[in-house]
Predict the structure of Heme-containing dehydratase-domain containing protein.
Amino acid sequence: MSASSIADHLKCPRTLPARLPNADFNPPYPSFSVRFPQNVSQLVMAIIGAQHKSASDAAVDTSRTTLTSFLTSSTCTTPPSFFEWASVTDNKGFYNITAFAYWPSKAAFDSWATDSGFKPWWDALPSDGTGTTTHGWFLEVFLPTTDRFETLFNTDSAREGSAHMCESMSDAVREHGYWGSMRDRIPLSQTDALSGVKAPAAEYRAPRDTDPCGRVRVPGRANLTVIRSGQDWRDTTPEERTLYLETMHPVLEKGMTFLRDHGEEVGCYSCRFMEIVDADSGKADGIDRTFGLAYFDEMASLEGWSKEHPTHLAIFGGFFQYAKKLENNVTLRVFHEVMVLEAEQQWFEYVGCHGGTGMLDTVMQAVVGRKVGRLDNFGDEHGHGEFDVELDDVGEGSELDVSDIVKRELWK
């Protein structure tokens, strides 16, 4: 008998039906979910990155060294439980190097931000993206409660991302291998439809240039859905490695490129297909690990792309063919973690980045404004300051729509 992906202490009487095909359903292959300690009720995933015009610029810059000094600070009693580095060259040609760091509570994260010196350093970055910084910086922080979070691994021995904070892994779970299983694994879905707000077309107006913005804080959105989905082929046999790189990886990359460049068609704000890089060299050579990181306007949009769009159907169908060719002796490791976030469980702040970066794409058509933000009250319900935007050198022909920005309520 398979176990439930939902931990016992997060179960409750269902008021909404599960998507399970039938009571006797058996998944086609085993998968596992993370079990966190019961006293862990909220997690933190922080994405702290630097944006360079090229990888060669990043190679001679100290941004990674700077961030490492905060993440490994000896003065801090609550360092991240786990962090690693990843990189991506975006569709504007900019090279982004990022630290992905995890904490088991908001209190631990807040303590680290203060004690390590990260918070005052971040707040002191020039708000116009100039001065002592020659590149962009970005900070994207997610603070899901455990009832808004789910994980799935195809092995119970690997540790990725939030699994480094787990108490154990579950037995093989029943909620996978069918459409709707992702939703069924989220504890809150027992009583909540997890509905968000479909993004209007205007929120996908990517800027045509690559001029840096100032400091911009982008507000959270109700039930924004974030997925991090990873692949690890380090331990595959030579036969499987060749099969993966020649059949599965190109199809996966095509799907991630679609979400990056045409996400507006399926409700995806942002997608980065990233490579894990070596902590010392900053290079991906020989690491053999990747992941997609995507932000959808709501769970239903992610489900719709997964179930209906040709790019994901190719990934889904391709994996079953891949497993069949290997007679189900698959050593490729895959995982994902999905969170459905309340607006106050999100923090997006960008300094000197181009307007197509992350969630900036939702508010910037032409980057001509300057917005001063503050690293205070991460995720606090009442942590929003007064609305304030300074407009600098708005030139003739600029497409900035001030009323549009006001409606989105950029905060201090």
